[in-house]
Here is the input.
Amino acid sequence: MESFRPYLSVAPHVQAALDAGRPVVALESTIISHGMPYPRNVETALRVEDLIRQHGAVPATIAVIQGKMTVGCTREQIEYLGKRGLKVPKASRRDLPVLLARGEDGATTVTTTMIAASMAGIRVFATGGIGGVHRGAEVTMDISADLEELAMTDVMVICAGCKSILDIGLTLEYLETKGVPVLGYQTSEMPAFYTTHSGFQVDWRVDTPLEAARILRTKLDCGLKGGVLLTNPIPEAYAMDLDYINENIQQALKECDEKGIHGKAITPFLLDRIQQLTGGASLEANIQLVCHNVTLGAEVAKALSSL
Ligand code: PSU
Ligand code: MN
Here is the structure.
């Protein structure tokens, strides 16, 4: 038995789907506990699970629950993670052994969701946005562990690009160095979360879920270690005005600096401030893009199962 097994708890219906080669889509829990306010976080988490089911795949929300990497959280567990919010520690790679050893809970980021998904044998994971190289990282060295995870763990991450709280250009440079293919779904431009435009090109454009699945399958078959980033632009109808969102991001960044917030608290602080400053418009956009991404996730997972 693999030595990680005692720390991993895969829900029986998720395990059954994996054993039968049916499509499964992993989902993260930091977005629930730290990324959105209650009760919209719980509503959204349950809605995205439904969407995945409607599109013929099995959702598996991942979190650390009482010291176990739980793959396929129950409705009760999702409600618990959403209600406790910031009281649930944000669990990145470095936190994982501590939380598991102590039997504690943790909200999994993109990094730890990839780790648990990979251990369980899930290859497709959909979320909102990933962490990246922060603006000013040449001084602060604030680079999200998500990028290192993409370099080493064999999971495709479907997201709406990264927010301009990050330095998108440097994030793409970093991913290039680490050998992570960055694909644009029906676009050649890297989307910037709230907007479809960032001014940066992706490496490769793909136009169908099958194409994306083939690239992932090929990377796995060749043992080319690491993930694939599939960026999916927010639907035009929900995209925000570039200047408006950028002004608010600037304001949030300024406050973050003034308050001396650092480390793992930076991203949740910025997400929350932007939501407050935009009066909830960014939350609405966030929910829409997550729904859009999980739908694509279900399609890619189905395509991958068919190969
Ligand atoms: N970006 C978002 N929403 C999020 C996150 C990032 O637009 O919820 C979360 C994800 O869980 C991501 C984490 O993995 O923040 C990155 O945190 P950090 O920048 O501290 O690495
Ligand atoms: Mn950081």
User: Anything to note?
Assistant: The CA atoms of residues 99 and 286 lie 29 Å apart. Residues 142, 144, 266 surround manganese (II) ion (ligand 2) (CB under 6 Å). The chain has one domain: 2-306.
